[in-house]
UniProtKB/TrEMBL annotation:
Domain called DJ-1/PfpI: residue spans: 6-166
One of the GO BP terms on file: regulation of DNA-templated transcription
Annotated GO MF terms: cyclohexyl-isocyanide hydratase activity
Lyase keyword on record: yes
Pfam families reported in the protein's UniProt record: DJ-1_PfpI
Protein name per UniProt: Isonitrile hydratase
Swiss-Prot/TrEMBL keywords: Lyase
InterPro entries xrefs: Class_I_gatase-like (IPR029062), DJ-1/PfpI (IPR002818), INH-QAR (IPR052158)
Root EC class: lyase
Record keyword Manganese present: no
Enzyme Commission code: 4.2.1.103
Length: 224
C-alpha cells in the first residue's frame, strides 16, 4: 500500500448503522486513511436507527478500495439479489488488498464468491447459514483468512477495525486509536454472545427476532 489507504464502505437501505459507523470511526483515525461510502446512487440511505446516511460516491464513481468493508443489516436480504450491488463488491474485491465484512455483510461477500473455502464469521443468529455461501464458520469475534477478514455482530466491527489497523500500521498505532476513542468495554452484563448469555434470554431473542430473520436470509440465499 501507499502512504494513503482508501477505505470503501458499501452502503445500502436497511443497513445497521453501527456496522458502518463503529469501524469507520476507528479506521478514519488510521494515518493516511481516506474513507468513502458507496451506494447505488447518492440518495440518503435509510438505516435501521431512524436516520439516514449520505453516500460520498455512487458505484460508478467510487474509488478503488485498498480496504473494502461490507456492513450488515436486515437490508442484506434485498441486497443479496441486486446485481449492481454484488457486481460492485466483486469488482472492488478484485483490486483490494483487504476484503472485509461486519455482521451479516459476510453473506454479501459470499454471494460475490469471496468466501468459498474460507473460514468466516457473522452475527451469531446466522452462522449456520455460512455454508450456503461457501464459508466455514469459526466461532470468533474476528476471523482472518488471508486477505478476507470477517467479524461477528454489530459491535464486533470495532474489534475488526482495530485488528486490521494493527496488521497495516502496527500494534502501537492500533492501541493509540483504541485509547483515543476510549474503547475500554465494561458492559453491565456478561451476555453479549449466546456462549455467555442466559439461555432464556437467548431463546427469547431468537423467537422474537432471529429465527424469522435467519429464515428470510436463507430464502434470499437460495434464490439463484
Amino acid at each position: 500500500m501507499t502512504d494513503t489507504t482508501t477505505i470503501v464502505f458499501l452502503l445500502f437501505p436497511g443497513i445497521t448503522q453501527l456496522d458502518f459507523t463503529a469501524p469507520a470511526q476507528a479506521l478514519s483515525r488510521m494515518p493516511g486513511a481516506i474513507l468513502s461510502g458507496a451506494a447505488a446512487n447518492l440518495d440518503p440511505i435509510a438505516t435501521d436507527s431512524g436516520f439516514a446516511i449520505l453516500p460520498t460516491h455512487d458505484f460508478a464513481s467510487a474509488p478503488q478500495a485498498d480496504i473494502l468493508c461490507i456492513p450488515g443489516g436486515h437490508g442484506v436480504t434485498d441486497a443479496l439479489n441486486d446485481p449492481a450491488t454484488i457486481g460492485f463488491i466483486a469488482r472492488q474485491a478484485a483490486g483490494a488488498a483487504w476484503v472485509t465484512s461486519i455482521c451479516t455483510g459476510a453473506f454479501l461477500l459470499g454471494r460475490a464468491g469471496l468466501l468459498r473455502g474460507k473460514r468466516a464469521t457473522t452475527h451469531w443468529g446466522y452462522t449456520h447459514l455460512l455454508p450456503l455461501v461457501g464459508g466455514r464458520h469459526e466461532n470468533a469475534r474476528v476471523v482472518e483468512d488471508g486477505q478476507v477478514v470477517t467479524s461477528g455482530g454489530v459491535t464486533s466491527g470495532l474489534d475488526f477495525a482495530l485488528t486490521l489497523i494493527a496488521r497495516i500500521k502496527g500494534d502501537a498505532v492500533a492501541q493509540a486509536i483504541q485509547l483515543a476513542i476510549e474503547y475500554d468495554p465494561a458492559p453491565p452484563f456478561p451476555g453479549g454472545h449466546p456462549d455467555r448469555a442466559p439461555e432464556a434470554v437467548t431463546a427469547g431473542l431468537k423467537a422474537r427476532v432471529y429465527d424469522a430473520a435467519a429464515a428470510r436470509m436463507e430464502a434470499a440465499l437460495t434464490i439463484l
